[in-house]
Amino acid sequence: MQDISEKVSYLQGLSEGLNIREGSPQGKIISGVLSVLDEIAESFLVMQDRFDELQEYVESMDTDLQELEEKWSEELDFAEEIRCSHCGELICFDPEVLDDEDVVEIICPYCDEVVFVNDGSFDYQPSFIGDEKGENEEHSGAPI
């Protein structure tokens, strides 16, 4: 956007070359307009630089978000799901919890109710997210 600054500089040089004096009323107006144009051009260049920096930052965030989405998608393919019997929300969790030797409680993040404990106190049929649609509906993972 140097083009705007160059045009303002050209007009300032033209004004000086035509001997437009600041002492005359017209000279004061032209000089003032050229001065304002110069300030606008400088401000515009600063805004353009800031915009370019912001654009780079947003593109960087977009790339990071895309990587996170891909990672999450890969992890979600191996997740199990269970429906909260209290609020009805679907909760996804790592299937390794089922085989953990320690007692682990799965708590609904929406209503803070315990939806599963791996100590056998909940009757649970796992349902993988990757199952066919009809299978997911039959075995929603909800405690029986």
From TrEMBL:
This is AraC family transcriptional regulator. The lineage of its organism: Bacteria, Bacillati, Bacillota, Clostridia, Eubacteriales.
